[in-house]
Amino acid sequence: MKCMNCGSDFGTPYCGQCGQEAASGKVTVAEMKRSLLRAFSLERGWLHTVFDLCVRPGSMLRDYLGGKRIVYIGPVKFALTAGAVYLIAMGAIHVPSPAGATAGEERVLELWNEFYQRFGQPLFLLAAPLIALATRVLFPARGYSFAEHLSINLYILGLQTLAFTPIFAMAYFGSNAFMVAYALGVAMMLAYFAWVIRQVLAERWWTAILGGMTAAVVASLAYFAIVLPFLVLFARVKGVALF
Ligand SMILES: [Zn+2]
Description:
Blueprint: H1 29-39, H2 46-55, H3 57-66, H4 75-92, H5 103-138, H6 146-164, H7 175-200, H8 205-237
The site of zinc ion has 8 residues, from loops.
């Protein structure tokens, strides 16, 4: 039969040239149901990726880097979608300013939220290569390339982002509850980072924790050094002098 996507001839369930399914003429309800089921399948797709990243990130990442790819959502797509979910949650919920904040501090927080809403995805995309560079330098022993470190960190970042998103709901319980949840969320992200590093990059727990924290701090500093001039510029455009 002829592939509806690329036109090559094939006799298998999927096109050998482009990978499109054989049964794709008109979009049908049956087809939509199949793709929905696939998206929530425990054997491949979103749930499978999230589940494995939660339960066995080490073997999942080794599998992925080793070539077992089709059962997982790709790292870039995974991280970008997680980032989009996060930004939607952040935009939908008004994050309360901490109790006792001055008007000036509140204005800066608001500005930061606005800045993040506007440039969230590029900001998000910047974080991954920075942290990948840091883990590449700090954990050379396994011999992974920069691209492999980038894939690992995109998966980590994606899962951290998904796990962090429900924290915005705590804003409904006031600023104190939000701050506590936020702090716990950051602690959870760091713990997850060290845990995954221990499984894929580090031989020992103490190198995973120490190296992981160093990578997080160095990447954060580099991140803010790059982002700050843009934030200042953004503030200037909005008529706020940050410095
Ligand atoms: Zn094709």
